[in-house]
Design a protein that fits this description.
catalytic activity, single chain, two-stranded antiparallel sheet, Nucleoside_phosphorylase_sf, 10 strands
């Protein structure tokens, strides 16, 4: 199977800036979700494809934040049917600056996170940890190394006259972090959100910053398993 990177965003707000960074101009097409969770109408997840450096990228719009995990499942099913394998998920999005430590972040900065565990997820992880494929652990390490390279070398990037920076909200030295990134069974993921004001001021700035940060992470990644 050929390998692809799955880039999932929760709304059309983030779709435009992300799509503009793919080396291909294609109209979005849709996958339909006829699962019992949406009996009233099938949910449609719009996607387009492209490349960033040597990586094939599928950009999927989940329409709403609560559908992101389901979009990931549908994506895996559809691509497997096409003989393609997802190596990593990168979840884009937006968040409010007020949710972060004052003085450490600015509008347009990006926060990069690995999965956050509650008791239920921790119990689930303990059950599946031994079954996580070695290639997924390697892909998780490649993803973490790409983020580290970005953070180590970053000089910020200017959007609309504002200099924006990326920040990691996790400890890469945490024990077993590569396995913990694979709580979607066997598939590592990170989240990259651009920060805006509570009144959604600077929305375009934050969306563009998130997309640029994700693009730069993908550019740093080695060939995936």
């Amino acid at each position: 199977m050929s390998s692809v990177i799955a880039w999932i965003i929760p709304s059309w707000t983030e779709y435009g800036p992300a799509k503009n960074l793919l080396n291909r101009d294609a109209l979005p097409t849709a996958w339909e979700d006829h699962a019992p969770a949406s009996p009233e109408d099938p949910i449609e997840y719009y996607y387009c494809t492209g490349t960033i450096k040597e990586h094939d990228v599928y950009l999927v719009n989940a329409e709403k934040e609560r559908y992101v995990n389901r979009a990931a499942e549908i994506m895996a099913e559809e691509l497997k049917a096409q003989g393609k394998n997802i190596s990593v998920y990168i979840i884009g999005g937006l968040d409010y600056l007020a949710n972060y430590t004052p003085g450490h972040f600015n509008i347009g900065d990006c926060a990069i996170s690995t999965p956050v565990f509650d008791e239920e997820i921790e119990a689930y992880y303990q059950n599946i940890r031994e079954s996580i494929p070695e290639e997924s652990r390697k892909n998780a390490k490649s993803l973490l190394d790409a983020v580290s390279s970005l953070l180590h070398n970053q000089q910020g990037y200017t959007i609309g006259g504002r200099t924006c920076y990326a920040h990691a909200l996790y400890d890469q030295n945490q024990a077993d972090i590569e396995s913990r990134m694979c709580v979607i069974p066997g598939l590592p993921y990170i989240t990259v959100v651009g920060l805006c004001k509570v009144d959604l001021d600077q929305l375009e700035l934050a969306s563009t910053a998130s997309a640029l940060t994700i693009m730069k992470i993908i550019e740093q990644m080695e060939k995936l398993e």
